[in-house]
Amino acid sequence: MGGMSDKPDLNAAYALKTPDDSRRLYAEWAGDYDSGFAAREDYQLHIHTARAFVGAGGQGPVLDVGAGTGLCGAVLADLGVGPIDATDISQQMLAQAMRKDIYRDAIVADINEGIPVPPESYSGIVSSGTFTTGHVGPDAIDQLLRVARRGALLAISINAQHYASAGFAAKLDGLKGQIQRLTLTETTIYGSLATGDHKSDRALIALFEKA
Hints:
Layout lengths: L9 H5 L4 H11 L4 H7 L4 H11 L6 E4 L5 H8 L5 E5 L2 H8 L6 E4 L13 E10 L9 H7 E12 L8 H7 L4 E10 L13 E9 L1
Parallel strand pairs: 1-2, 1-4, 2-3, 4-5
Antiparallel strand pairs: 5-7, 6-7
Helix pairs in contact: 4-5
């Protein structure tokens, strides 16, 4: 594949295999992610995810998982939700996020390895654009449930194309008894200005409560 390009490239993101790949790519993206990729491709998934959470009555304290530069957290904050903590594998992305003054705390972590906070720390968990394929699979949902309080609301966007094939459907099905009130809402990821290969991609927003 050669050198990583300077411009955020979704195919590069979808090709990530290891945590180090993720850290490297997102370090390169961090500086102009919002004004570059997000603006250029009319990225909107974070808005849909935040609105789904708030619309279902979601409240803080919230953990924003795969927070990146804070796109989703900013929408949550605008909608009156807080406090919000951010976690991401990329320290550089979190550094950008913390400049927005919307997060209480930033936690650098590989979600596959767990999140270094006490159990049942959060009343809400939101994750936009992190559960795709490659770096974060369905088993990471267990780590989210560990840090969620009983009755906590979780709103997780999952790439629709990979929902069944990557095991997300089976995972959520297997969590019966641990989660309740699961709903799936299909949404677009990008707005009408998007031009790339992935402009028509769709996501499912999984909303559920910890039982």
